[in-house]
Model the fold of this input.
Amino acid sequence: MATTEAATRAPRIDAEQAAAWRAFLRAHALMLRKIGEDFAAAGLPPFAWYEVLLVLYEAPEHHLQPSELADELVLSRSGLSRMIDRIEESGLVVRRACPGDRRAIHVELTEEGEKMLDTMWCVYARCIADHFLPAMGEQAWTIREAMESVAESVRRRKGDGAAPSDDS
Amino acid sequence: MATTEAATRAPRIDAEQAAAWRAFLRAHALMLRKIGEDFAAAGLPPFAWYEVLLVLYEAPEHHLQPSELADELVLSRSGLSRMIDRIEESGLVVRRACPGDRRAIHVELTEEGEKMLDTMWCVYARCIADHFLPAMGEQAWTIREAMESVAESVRRRKGDGAAPSDDS
DNA sequence: CAGATATGATTGCATGTACAACTACTGCCC
DNA sequence: GGGCAGTAGTTGTACATGCAATCATATCTG
Done:
């Protein structure tokens, strides 16, 4: 075993908090399955592609490097590399040389990709509007704050396997 | 195309709401990656196993049928079937005949599985306590309510490809 | 400038997951 | 009871994803 003994004691987590976490997991799983079903039913590409196209669309000139993309999407580089293969094959993005750094490339959104983004958004937005937003109600802001705080917390300690957190 | 034209118009979603949704996705992705890393670093099985073990543990007599398990975990039956293969091979669960219905089986948690659940919880709980709970603060209840509401909304309309939702 | 080190992307391999087809059994209807 | 639809689980196949190794290029150091 390559571990310290840091894993021998579990911090206390009360029922309400545990329920919040599990509800979070479940909501995510159900939403993603639903979105995937809706995309499939409409003959559209998988959800993962949507996120790639969106991030590219939002980038300064509709292009990014794979590594930036992988970071943004919380995906491994290898996985992303192959995904780009498939998306490129469909003509929604292209790989272009990156001026100034010849080992890097730009992944650029095509016109066709931009249209696809739009088409997918129609299906996607309905799913969010039907299931996610109503549940947020007036708390959208609160939820957003909390979620962003989670993300920041994880990002801050990316490397730490098991940081000391003062439970008794 | 096998779809109605219901996908041609996207409901309006304002920036705050969209940000909440995206923060939700990102928080989930980051948390799951972190948990996976922590489990791997501790030489423990993948996160998916934990959820199987937990659901079994919580079941009436520490056993469930695969289909119930698949439902609970939002997983396909085939995927679950193979996962059970692997978990069973590790001795954490066993398949047993189901009295009263000879096509069904029980998947039952072993003693060893129960111990593993405990070990994994130590790592897992720390991750939640370190990154998720602090971000919830006093809002744990609000978040839980919202997340459960999302889940219920999706479950209610499981089959509907694109239900009519009154956007203009 | 040469060599060492770091960074960006891809590929081999292993694993995980889903859909569709299949087998086995149950329950219904005639 | 015999046949037919439905349900539970598994398997063939394809696809998706991650880690580790690799190749090419960049940057740093002496």
In short: Confidence is low (pLDDT under 50) at residues 1-7, 159-168 of chain B.
